């Protein structure tokens, strides 16, 4: 029972309190680039969650069971990025072959994901925080869901911003960043949740 | 099949080999310096806590196979034991906090604490590094557990630690780590 | 009126001003054009909005921002050099993999160097150093420039982009450190009565400052 409640804490901590986008600034490029419409944002969010969960877990295994025992953990950045790149390729091929409809809906985002800092960032933070295997699994999934949550919220806000009267110079990225700033303040409300 | 595979990917394989070797070489060159940096940092903090002329003697964990992990530090001055110090880790507000805490030889008073690593909220929780908060731990009695209060006078030396406004959790975390650390240090040394 | 200016005037009247400017651009050496472009016209932070993650994350103070700028420039330069050297050997879909591998190698080296010579900065920047690997600026330059152009042009381009990026980081960090701590490089510069704006240190301050800066650049420098 204790492990379960602990895992729930890990999940909430990474999805809300230490949200990847809003407190760690990871995945800002898609956050600004793909959040124009909610459905696109959701597709991107799903793709990221999918890849993040797999690569978060696989890099944990490689780092803890292969690199650290042989004392080569200085090669871990190279190993991590290679794992992510090949995971993205694998997922893309697998989806195209077996789930064509799913591939249609978020497959176009997959190639973009290799250079999405949210993925590598999550792997690095999991390593930094010294998570165990279960925590890594739950944590990376939570990170992905947190990303999906904020990118969809941003999509919703931006759909409405289309109709707002914004100063010309702030249109596009400017107003999105300021909105993100205000959203961060709101998310700080979650901060006290975890002790 | 194999020939085609090699033809496509020889560059990747070669580059991986060359880059891997290169990084290993550089790591080998820099490793002593990196390890020395970590030790220097701890030595500097310890000198700050025990005084410039203190001799620091790291006690190695006998169970560690590499013979490298430090169990605790003992500070001496001209043959006399000044006190002991220990690295302690605990959960903070956002991330783990790593502290160095020092007590005197009789386990009566805290010598003080130093923050080795923290990732607390800037402007609030990261004030645990400021002398104003940290200084409260100097000369605190360690016979009883330290407690956190919201208000009070910081300059009074007692077991009450006045928390940082807006960062109660970080303050509580530091106090908890110190309390646990003192207990452990007492167990190890005795 | 000096002769050069008069010639310029006449040329403009004959073939139109834009064309004259274009010819002027073409007459310059390619490497110089690339170098200057990175500094402002295609500035990574203010114009292209590439590599936003470090721009927001490490600009709380000037010192880490400068370190990050230097590390990114180092990786940009080295990977531009290597990618440009092997540009004729790159094939199809393995191209991106090679870029990533090269960049990851140099980032690891930069990280080790930081750990050895600037340990405090290394702790402060934490995982944002390895995150240089996925800075889209670097892979973007590898794809757009160094995999097509010669060594000299690639290196000039990387230097320009790197300096432009560092400049962007420093602008943001100057504003944030001044308002959050009343200091620059950790040295107090504001008058004694200055009340720190704590929000500028928080993520929210980063987002809002960058948003307003982008608005200002658009307002004053946008081509009509």
Q: Can you characterise this structure?
A:
By secondary structure, chain A is mainly alpha-helical. Helices cover 75% and strands 0% of the residues of chain A. Chain B is an alpha+beta fold. Chain B has one domain. Chain B is built from three helices and seven strands. With 224 residues, chain C is mainly alpha-helical. Chain C has one domain. Chain C has a two-stranded antiparallel ribbon with strand order 1-2. In chain C, helix 1 crosses helix 2, helix 6 crosses helix 7 and helix 6 runs parallel beside helix 9. At the B-C interface, helix 1 of B face helix 7 of C.
Q: What fraction of residues of chain A sit in β-strands?
A: under 5%
Q: How many DSSP helices of chain B?
A: 3
Kindly state the number of beta strands of chain A. Answer: 0
Order of helices and strands of chain B: HEEEEEHEEH
Strand order of the largest sheet of chain B: 1-2-3-4-5
Low-confidence stretches of chain A are: none
The average pLDDT value of chain A, as a whole number, equals 83
Output the structural class of chain B. Answer: alpha+beta
Secondary-structure map:
The complex is a heterotrimer of chains A (195), B (190) and C (224).
Chain A: H1 2-17, H2 20-24, H3 28-33, H4 38-67, H5 76-98, H6 100-106, H7 110-113, H8 117-128, H9 133-161, H10 173-187
Helix pairs in contact in A: 1-9, 4-5, 4-8, 4-9, 5-6, 5-8, 8-9
Chain B: H1 2-50, E1 55-60, E2 70-77, E3 80-91, E4 96-104, E5 110-117, H2 131-134, E6 147-149, E7 160-162, H3 168-189
Parallel strand pairs in B: 6-7
Antiparallel strand pairs in B: 1-2, 2-3, 3-4, 4-5
Chain C: H1 3-15, H2 17-27, H3 30-41, H4 44-48, H5 52-57, H6 62-85, H7 94-117, H8 119-125, H9 136-146, H10 151-181, E1 183-184, E2 187-188, H11 203-221
Antiparallel strand pairs in C: 1-2
